[in-house]
């Protein structure tokens, strides 16, 4: 197709991204164009766009965009997907390598020959309010009472490169996440908006979560959300340091080391090569 924009769709446990390689396209990415591409039914449909490889701080990196066109500092599933793209298209040949993001460098290890399983060093979490950010006095936001849609909830907030609000419940469902998510995302206490995970403890090594992502809405899986839920559960004494985080798209394994470094292990898969005419945006 002449004058077309080519992309590749991948998914990480049902959390799908379009990879748009600037070395193979001349399109200038803008928020409205990203939102159009991601719109299901009218566009190609995706939870976001990965724009790269690009140079960030002099190193190979990726810009991560939500489906509403806003830019995210980090995405756990997005990083694993982009790592697969780099291997599939021979930008890297090593099993271990680094990807630069807006939240800093992320160390990635490919665990199999098909490049479908990756282990990612996600760094360390912070519960400190000014770093998340959460308004009010500087404090660790742990098991604190918040009011969302006129109802009180005990919530733990933290950042793993992006902000998360974790609420434990006896039961979780997509309906609860969809109902509560917009209120949490846009609450006044969260000046940069907020991701939500509602969680249920299964046992000391397993959690169930449902996810509402800022800028994307309800999603089937989240890498950073899995990290945040696991670290919150561990901090609250609900789990051990190795946790399987069950979500509608599948399972992500989280390991919390003695120095509080978080490792995320999960799968990714290729979906399709895709293209749109440049006139799609006009």
CATH H-tier superfamily of the largest domain: Diaminopimelate Epimerase, Chain A, domain 1
At CATH level 2, the architecture of the largest domain is: Roll
Topology-level CATH name of the largest domain: Diaminopimelate Epimerase, Chain A, domain 1
Count the beta strands: 18
**SS element count, helices:** 4
Assign an overall shape.
globular
β-strand percent reads 35-45%
* Major sheet attributes: 12 strands, mixed
| Mean pLDDT, all residues | 96
CATH class of the largest domain: Alpha Beta
Element order: H for helix, E for strand: EEHEEEHEEEEEEHEEEHEEEE
DSSP helix fraction:
10-25%
Distance between the first and last residues' Cα: 17 Å
Structural class category: alpha+beta
Our count of domains comes out at 2
Rounded radius of gyration (Å): 18 Å
> Are there runs of 5+ residues with pLDDT below 50, and where?
none
Concise description?
By secondary structure, the protein is an alpha+beta fold. The chain contains 4 helices and 18 strands. The model has no long low-confidence stretch (mean pLDDT 96).
How would you describe this structure to a colleague?
With 282 residues, this protein is an alpha+beta fold. It has 2 domains: 4-123 and 268-281, Diaminopimelate Epimerase, Chain A, domain 1 (Roll), CATH 3.10.310; 129-260, Roll (Diaminopimelate Epimerase, Chain A, domain 1), CATH 3.10.310.10. The chain contains 4 helices and 18 strands. The strands form 2 sheets. Strands 6, 7, 8, 9, 10, 11, 12, 13, 14, 15, 16 and 17 form a 12-stranded mixed sheet that branches. Strands 5-4-3-2-1-18 form a 6-stranded mixed sheet, sandwiched between helices. The longest helix is centred in the N-terminal third of the chain and has 13 residues, at 76-88. 44% of the residues are buried. The mean pLDDT is 96.
């Amino acid at each position: 197709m002449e004058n077309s924009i080519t992309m590749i769709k991948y998914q990480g446990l049902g959390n799908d991204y379009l990879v748009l390689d600037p070395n193979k396209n001349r399109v200038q990415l803008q928020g409205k164009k990203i939102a159009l591409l991601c719109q299901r039914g009218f566009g190609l449909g995706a939870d976001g766009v990965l724009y790269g490889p690009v140079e960030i701080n002099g190193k190979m990196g990726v810009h991560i965009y939500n489906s509403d066109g806003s830019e995210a500092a980090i995405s756990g599933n997005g990083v694993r997907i982009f790592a697969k793209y780099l291997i599939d298209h021979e930008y890297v040949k090593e099993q271990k390598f680094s990807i630069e993001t807006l939240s800093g460098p992320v160390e990635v290890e490919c665990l199999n020959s098909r490049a479908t399983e990756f282990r990612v060093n996600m760094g360390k979490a912070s519960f400190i309010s000014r770093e998340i950010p959460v308004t009010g006095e500087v404090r660790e936001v742990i098991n604190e009472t918040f009011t969302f849609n006129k109802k009180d909830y005990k919530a733990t907030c933290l950042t793993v490169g992006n902000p998360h609000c974790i609420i434990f419940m006896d039961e979780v469902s997509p309906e609860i996440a969809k109902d509560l998510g917009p209120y949490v995302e846009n609450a006044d206490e969260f000046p940069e908006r907020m991701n939500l995970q509602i969680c249920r403890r299964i046992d000391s090594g397993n959690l169930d979560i449902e996810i509402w992502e800022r800028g994307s809405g309800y999603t089937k899986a989240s890498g950073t959300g899995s990290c945040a839920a696991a670290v919150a559960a561990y901090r609250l004494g609900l789990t051990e340091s190795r946790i399987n985080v069950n979500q509608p798209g599948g399972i992500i394994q989280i390991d919390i080391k003695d120095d509080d470094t978080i490792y995320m292990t999960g799968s990714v898969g290729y979906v399709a090569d895709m293209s749109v005419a440049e006139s799609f945006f006009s």
